[in-house]
Automatic annotation (TrEMBL):
Organism: Endozoicomonas gorgoniicola
Positions in coiled-coil regions: none
EC number assigned by the record: 1.14.13.-
Gene: ubiH
Protein name: 2-octaprenyl-6-methoxyphenyl hydroxylase
Keywords per UniProt: FAD, Flavoprotein, Monooxygenase, Oxidoreductase
Amino acid sequence: MANEIGGDMTEKQFDILIIGGGLVGTSFLCALEPIIKSHQLKVGLIESHDLDKPGDTPPSYDARASALSYGTRLIYEQLGIWKELSDDAMPILDIHVSDRGHFGQVHLNHNEEHVPALGYVIENFRLGKVLLRRLKAFRDQQLIKVLSPAEVTGIKPVPEARMAVEVVTGNDQSDSQGNSQGNSQGSYQNSYQNSYQADLIILADGGRSSLLDKLNISRKQFDYQQHALVANVSLDRPHAGIAYERFAGEGPMALLPLTGTEAGDYRCGLVWTLPNRQIDDYMALDEESFMERLQQLFGTRAGRFVRLGQRSSYPLSLNVAREQVRPGLVVLGNAAHVMHPVAGQGYNLAIRDAMALVSNISDSLAAGKSPGQLSQLLQYVEGQKRDQTMTLDFCDNLVKLFARKETGVILARNLGLTGLNVSRRLKTRFARKAMGL
C-alpha cells in the first residue's frame, strides 16, 4: 500500500473511491459507514450530477418503482435507514403468478411464510431521497469527500497496487467538503482535469457505464428484443397489497402495489414487457385506448383500471461484466449485471453484493491488508458467484420459458406452476428465494 490504511494522505489519495452516487453507490456507502469510522478511512464519491441542485439527480432516482425483497428490508434495517423508508414502502402481502388463458398459477402469502411482508414496493425517487440525505450527512460530518458534479474520463493502474482516476470538474475550485462549485449541468465548459488515487475503486455508475469500455472489460450480452413499458395506474378498488405477475400476450406484465395518494387513488406500478416492434404503437396510444388494451390482456382480477400516469420505456437485455474485480477495482450494481425485470430481482441482488463486499473489505482491514488486494477481492466474487448465477439464470430462463408457444411447453409449464402451488415445501423454497433469504 502507498499509505497506511486511514493514515495521512494527500487530498488526492483515498482508501476507497466510489464512482456513482446512485441507489447502489449510496447504499454501499451507508453499509461502509461503521468501517469508515472504526478504521478512519478516507473515502470519496464521484458523481456526474450536481447532488446539491434540486432535480439534478442520478438517473436511478427516477419515478419508476422498485420491488425490495424482505431480505433487502432487513439489510436497510441493519443500516438504520428502514425507518425513514417504511412510510413510503408498500408491503407486498400476496403474490399471484399466472399464465393468461391457462390453468397454471402460484399464490404466495406472507402469513404462510411467517413474515410481515413478502417484499415492499417503493418509488425510486423516494428511496433516493432518503439515501441522498444520508450521503449529505456523511459529507457534512466530513466522513467522506464528495466531487459533484464531476465526470470520470479514465481509470488506470498506477505503481504500488493503486488505481488512478482522471476526473473533469466544472471548475478548478472545490469547497471544504469536496463539492465542485462549477457547472451544475455537467457540460463542464470551464473544465479542470485532476487525478485521484485510491487503494480500491468501486465502479457503480450504472448499466450504461462507459468506463467498462475504457477498462477493456467486456460484457456477456443478450438482447431480448423487448422493451419495458413503465407507468403508474390507478384501480377502482383497493389493491390489498397484492402483486401480480401475469404472463400474457407477447410478454410478462407485473402490477406492483403502491402507497395511495392524498386524493385516495389506489395506485399500482405497471411494468409491461413488449416486443420492440410494438413499443412505439403502445406508447402512442391515447390513455383510453391504452387502458382498454391493458384491461383486455391483464383481465379484471385486480379490478378496473381507471387512471394512467406518465408512460416511459427502456430496452431490455442481459448484460454481465466478464470481470467484476481487478487489483484495486470492483464493478458493482448494474455496471456488473443487468437482468430482465420479470422477477424484480436486479436491485436486490446488487444490495446483497454490496453487503458482501463491505464484509470482504472489513476482513481485509482486520488482517492489515489493503482493501484492493486482488486475492481478497477474488474471495468476494467467489462468495457471490452462486447467488448471482442462480438469480440471473432464473430471470433469464423464466422469460424464455414463457415466451414459448408450443403446446407441449405450455402444458408443461402450467403443470409446473400447479405443482409448485400445491407443494408446501417447494413453495416455501421458492418464496424464500424471492424474498432474498
